[in-house]
């Protein structure tokens, strides 16, 4: 089967499309024929070595986390899936490898695909959907009538967060590139402000500020909060660590792909309440070029890059 791999941490030029043996579905894993896999910034952050302390030094490494496909074999101890099931989910940060014709995925990071949705429609959901859910709702929940500000409201996580917050009866404001403001308003986001917005008119208006882009100054985010409000950050850096420890308003979130979280986003998508547009779909043979372009230029706007393995389309 074909799989995108790399042999050391570094830039996009290190990616190779290789012919490898299909993986064996070990204990607690299922072998899935990938029908669609979606790209996330995390894919190239890992390949660049940004989190090598967690991803280790075993090479070659695969690339890609989010995917949807059909179970072809179940490993020892698997109880929730059988061959023929249509599923979607995510590879863990350590595993990666969804940009391939087949993956051996952990059973507890998968759910069944809703019948009414395509493989592409669900492949784009796991990382952005679970991150948005665990950030916006989290343990504290979000009450109807509460207000949320999303910095980067048209990115993958931002779009998902806006839809999840609106679904829970909250009002949503957000920032995006000026030219994209109509798209944000069409999602129900109001007001919509540019990247370099003035915080003064929005002072003290929000129960939750969700900085998906990781570009907000802490002081600016705090200025937007109502008393008792919280700031969620998903782009932690060592410099932000003390804030996570000492500020009651600041919380760092790292997505955990649990069956419950995946099931929640699956149901929201099946009910038409959560959808992430696909901006571009390419076969595996063109994926390295498309991934390189996405990483270098941050195009395409307006949705996700999806990889549709050649074998699945024939
Ligand atoms: N901690 C976790 O578990 C976790 C999980 C998922 C993602 N993440 C991280 O969260 C970040 C967002 O992920 P994503 O999938 O949503 O990425 P994405 O789809 O690339 O979205 C990023 C968004 O930020 C916008 N943006 C860029 N500069 C901005 C600025 N100065 N002010 C406001 N917005 C700005 C971008 O707008 P344009 O497209 O117009 O430039 C884009 O809409 C990534 O860094 C990712 O690695 C963390």
What does this protein structure show overall?
This protein has 314 residues and is α/β, with parallel strands linked by helices. The chain contains eleven helices and 16 strands. The protein has helices at residues 41-47, 52-55, 119-123, 126-136, 156-167, 181-186, 218-224, 241-246, 259-270, 284-297, 310-313; strands at residues 2-6, 16-19, 29-38, 61-62, 66-74, 86-90, 102-106, 110-112, 147-151, 171-175, 192-193, 206-211, 225-233, 250-252, 278-283, 304-308. The strands form three sheets. Strands 3, 5, 6, 7, 8, 15 and 16 form a seven-stranded mixed sheet that branches. The radius of gyration is 19 Å and the shape is globular. The mean pLDDT is 95. NADP nicotinamide-adenine-dinucleotide phosphate binds at residues 40-42, 45, 127-128, 131, 151-152, 154-158, 175, 177, 195, 212-215, 234-235, 253-255, 298, 301.
Summary, kept brief:
The protein has 314 residues and is of the alpha/beta class.
Bound molecules: NADP nicotinamide-adenine-dinucleotide phosphate
Can you tell me the overall shape? globular
How far apart the termini lie comes to 14 Å
Low-confidence stretches: none
- Based on CA atoms alone, the radius of gyration comes out at 19 Å
Strand content: 25-35%
Helix content: 25-40%
The DSSP helix count reads 11
Query: Helix/strand-derived class?
Result: alpha/beta
Instruction: Quote the average pLDDT.
Output: 95
SSE run: EEEHHEEEEEHHEHEHEEHEHEHEHEH
Main sheet: strands, sense, barrel: 7 strands, mixed
Total beta strands: 16
């Amino acid at each position: 089967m074909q799989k995108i791999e790399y042999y050391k941490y570094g830039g996009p030029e290190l990616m190779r499309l290789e012919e490898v043996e299909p993986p064996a579905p070990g204990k607690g894993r299922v072998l899935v024929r990938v029908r669609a896999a979606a790209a996330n910034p995390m894919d190239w952050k890992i390949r660049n070595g940004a989190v090598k302390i967690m991803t280790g030094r075993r090479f070659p490494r695969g690339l890609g986390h989010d995917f949807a496909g059909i179970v072809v074999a179940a490993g020892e101890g698997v109880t929730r899936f059988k061959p023929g099931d249509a599923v979607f989910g995510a590879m863990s940060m350590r595993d990666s490898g969804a940009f391939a014709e087949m993956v051996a995925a952990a059973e507890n990071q998968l759910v069944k695909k809703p019948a009414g949705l395509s493989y592409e429609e669900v492949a784009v959901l796991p990382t952005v959907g679970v991150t948005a859910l665990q950030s916006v709702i989290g343990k504290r929940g979000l009450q109807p009538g509460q207000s949320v500000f999303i910095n980067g409201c048209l990115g993958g996580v931002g779009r998902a967060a806006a839809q999840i917050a609106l679904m829970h009866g909250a009002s949503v404001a957000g920032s995006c590139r000026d030219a994209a403001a109509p798209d944000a308003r069409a999602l129900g986001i109001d007001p919509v402000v540019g990247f370099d917005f003035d915080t003064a008119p929005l002072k003290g208006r929000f129960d939750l500020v969700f900085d998906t882009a990781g570009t907000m100054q802490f002081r600016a985010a705090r200025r937007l909060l109502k008393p008792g409000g919280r700031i969620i950050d998903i782009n932690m850096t060592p410099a932000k660590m003390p804030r996570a420890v000492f500020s009651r308003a600041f919380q760092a979130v790292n997505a955990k792909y649990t069956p419950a979280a995946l099931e929640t986003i699956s149901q929201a998508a099946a009910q038409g309440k959560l959808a992430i547009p696909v901006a571009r779909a390419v076969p595996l043979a063109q994926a390295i070029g498309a991934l390189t372009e996405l990483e270098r230029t941050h195009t395409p706007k307006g949705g996700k890059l999806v990889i549709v393995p050649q074998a699945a389309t024939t």
